[in-house]
Amino acid sequence: MQDLSSGLVVPALVLAILGWLVPRLLARIWREGVGPLLLLAFVSTLLLLALAAGVFVTLYLWQGAPLMLLFEHGTAATLGHFMRLGLLSALLWGPIMVLSLAGLPRHWKEETW
Which of 53, 59, 65, 79 could be disulfide-bonded to 86 (CB atoms 3.0-4.6 Å)? Predict the structure, then answer.
């Protein structure tokens, strides 16, 4: 049971927390407004895609895969593989990111929705 929790639950929880936090943290330095909110969604998506790929690289390394073995088929193939994994994980962090973004206009002080 412990293997299931460390192999599935913890990474899923990390991705879910990142999906919530990334837009919230970026919103602190972002302008208010509908246009900037859409740009924030785009930037958050790109950043979460990269972070999710990083989470998968970390999981591979944590489970003992040598770094040189990951790049055995070339850098482009390896980056493509981890970006695909990050994109697939958008099924988990994507809806949470959308909910996080949807709550941001409530805290606007200068703009109205």
Answer: 53
C-alpha Rg value of the chain to the nearest Å: 17
Number of domains in the chain: 1
Residue type, 107: H
The reply to whether 110 falls in a domain is no
pLDDT digits (tens, 9 = 90+) for 51-91: 999 999 998 888 888 888 888 889 899 999 999 999 999 99
The per-residue pLDDT of the chain, averaged, comes to 90
Residue 69 included in any domain: yes
Tell whether pTM > 0.90. no
Question: What are the two backbone dihedrals, phi and then psi, of residue 106, each rounded to the nearest 5 degrees?
Answer: -60, -30
Q: How far apart are CA 112 and CA 88, in angstroms?
A: 34
Q: Whole domain around residue 38: which residue ranges?
A: 34-102
Closest CA to 40 of 91, 85, 107: 107
